[in-house]
Design goal:
The protein is of the alpha+beta class and about 110 residues long. The protein contains three helices and three strands; from the N terminus they run αββαβα. A three-stranded mixed β-sheet has the order 1-2-3. Helix 1 packs across helix 2.
């Protein structure tokens, strides 16, 4: 059962992510699944976890996938701050007193 569940999780994650499982490992113990490795974006990390939850008989997911942004996609602190400020300005629920601070790309 564990090997079949692992295969099902691997197939579902591979189908969800166009890059496949080249940088992601899946370990299954009972119904608990542990994801490890690295991907290029936070979206891929979330998509891998979501795909895992879609598989039957999965009752726990530990997402240990790291996001490693490729060098050519990294953004400066100013770019990140401008993008965050633009998003917050368009959200009517965020008060104008909210400030954006970015340091070391966080």
């Amino acid at each position: 059962m564990t090997q079949k569940l692992q295969r099902n999780v691997e197939n579902e994650v591979c189908w969800e992510l166009s890059a496949g499982l080249t940088n992601i490992s899946v370990v299954v113990k009972g119904g608990a699944v542990e994801l490890a490795g690295h991907v290029d974006s936070f979206w891929e990390k979330c998509a891998a976890e979501g795909a895992t939850w879609r598989v039957g008989h999965v009752n726990h997911v530990t997402n240990g996938i790291r996001v490693v942004v490729p060098f050519n996609k990294q953004r400066s602190d100013d770019d990140i701050a401008l993008a965050a400020m633009g998003s917050l300005e368009w959200n009517c629920l965020v008060p104008e007193t909210v400030e954006v601070q970015v340091a070391m790309e966080w």
